[in-house]
Design brief:
- The chain is of the alpha+beta class and 448 residues long.
- The chain folds into two domains: 193 residues, no CATH class; 236 residues, no CATH class.
- Strands 1, 2, 3, 4, 5, 6, 7, 8, 9 and 10 form a ten-stranded mixed beta sheet that branches.
- The two termini are 27 Å apart.
């Protein structure tokens, strides 16, 4: 009780120094909680989060090869990968014992008609549909897994319903919001498009849903497209069954009637994807490469978190350096000038251990209060603040993160308290002999 009373009295005699120590402890702890939460999420996202991915892999033309593409030259279809070539690639993967599931995406250009016009801009070429195959691209998906690898970006249906991949009788399509507005269409309306090789052959579909894009992959074209069919808002989506039922999934087509087949492979994990990529490399057609839309999208989603983590590392180094220096300075300012107080206490019979405990308690009272407040405030604010700074990437506050900050902070408090206690331990009792108020002949004042 004596020690606690004296420690409290000492803190009250220096309110500004006490308040400053509490504030320093609070700020260092609070921002440490924030930083620890960010770094935990960063390592989790690049560790178990990444390893949990089931990446999709596609074989597509490289950007260099696509530079040679002419959207009004039907000979370009000769560079499409054929079913036979895909069989070779699949066999190469299986030879390396790489297991995979697969789905199919197939597309062809289709012609606009008098009742259904494509979106055009000032950038759109004046080439006719006989040269381009059409002003639209009809893209079909075998199942929902294929949709996830859509080269034009992910989309959501804002009106109507998604495609039905099991109904072989449906003739439903999805069109973009912009295309629906241009043609004054709604869910339930019908559209008619023409065959890419024969304008007299037409296909009629029902608008089952209207979509809008939610992501923009690198290199995808919109209003800047040279050809209307390459503007992603002119892409019409349907099921693979509807595509095949219309006779568009053919191996006998010529020119733009040749379907562009994309096999979407699904692997068990990123390691399997790397093995798959290596297995296919020797047999890839010229100008093609293996990529993973899943991994690309995941890494892109982590960019704000990566940037925040980089800034947080620097912040934590500065925080701990400056905060630790201030806490140490305040501790030394509190205990170093108190030579007379220590000497007097020892002279009147107070033991060194009790004096050291008082000094330690003074430091602990200030720092532990600051740490407790910092943990409370940091625990409540780190999640929303970090999530906002990470631009929507949710950063959860885990109990393990809070516990790690807690015990490290308490160790720091204890270290400062030990420094304060050492000040008393290093006091030389021989100095008491020089006190004008003590009798040097008194044996009670001699060093033991």
């Amino acid at each position: 009780m004596f020690v606690a009373k004296n420690a409290w009295a000492e803190l009250r005699r220096h309110p500004w120094r006490t308040a400053l120590m509490v504030i320093v402890s609070l700020l260092v702890t609070m921002w440490s909680v924030f930083g620890a939460a960010v770094m935990h999420e960063y390592h989790a996202a690049h560790g178990e989060g990444y390893e949990a991915l089931k990446p999709q892999a596609v074989v597509r033309m490289t950007d260099t090869a696509l530079k040679d593409r002419n959207g009004d030259d039907a000979d370009w279809t000769k560079r499409y990968i054929t079913w036979d070539e895909y069989n070779v690639l699949g066999a190469a993967a299986q030879a390396k014992q790489v297991q995979f599931d697969y789905s199919v995406v197939a597309s062809v250009p289709v012609r606009s008609t008098d009742s259904f016009k494509a979106i055009t801009t000032s950038a759109t070429s004046g080439a006719g549909q006989n040269e381009t195959g059409g002003d639209f691209t009809l893209t079909s998906f075998y199942n929902e897994a294929a949709v996830a690898a859509n080269e034009y970006g992910s989309f959501k249906v804002v009106e109507g319903t998604k495609l039905n991949y099991q109904d072989v009788t449906a003739r439903d399509v999805l069109i973009s919001q912009e295309l629906a507005k241009k043609n004054n269409l709604k869910v339930g309306s019908t559209i008619t498009v023409g065959n890419p090789a024969n304008a007299k052959t037409t296909y009629t579909f029902t608008v089952g849903g209207i979509y809008t894009y939610t992501s923009t992959p690198q290199g995808v074209q919109g209003a800047d497209a040279q050809f209307a069919k390459d503007n992603r808002n002119n892409v019409i989506y349907t099921s693979y069954y509807d595509f095949a039922a219309s006779g568009l999934d053919t191996t006998e087509g010529t020119g733009w009637a040749v379907p562009d087949i994309n096999i979407v492979f699904t692997l068990a994990n990123p390691q399997a994807y790397e093995q798959f990529k290596s297995a296919l490399k020797p047999d890839l057609p010229e100008g093609f490469a293996v990529s993973s839309p899943t991994i690309d999208a995941y890494n892109h989603s982590l960019e704000p978190l990566d940037k925040l983590a980089g800034t947080t590392k620097i912040m934590l180094i500065c925080l701990w350096g400056v905060g630790g220096a201030l806490a140490l300075l305040l501790t030394l300012l509190e205990v170093c000038p108190r030579r007379e107080e220590i000497g007097y206490g020892l002279a009147v019979g107070v033991t060194k251990s009790r004096m050291a405990w008082q000094f330690m308690l003074e430091i602990l009272l200030q720092t532990v209060v600051g740490v407790a407040l910092g943990l409370l405030i940091g625990g409540w604010t780190a999640n929303p603040l970090a999530t906002q700074l990470a631009q929507g990437h949710t950063i959860a506050m885990h109990g393990g993160v809070l516990w790690n900050v807690t015990w490290i902070a308490l160790l720091a408090c204890l270290l400062l308290a030990i420094i304060a206690g050492v000040r008393v331990a290093l006091f030389r009792t021989a100095q008491l002999a020089h006190s004008p108020y003590l009798n040097s002949a008194d044996p009670t004042t001699k060093e033991q």
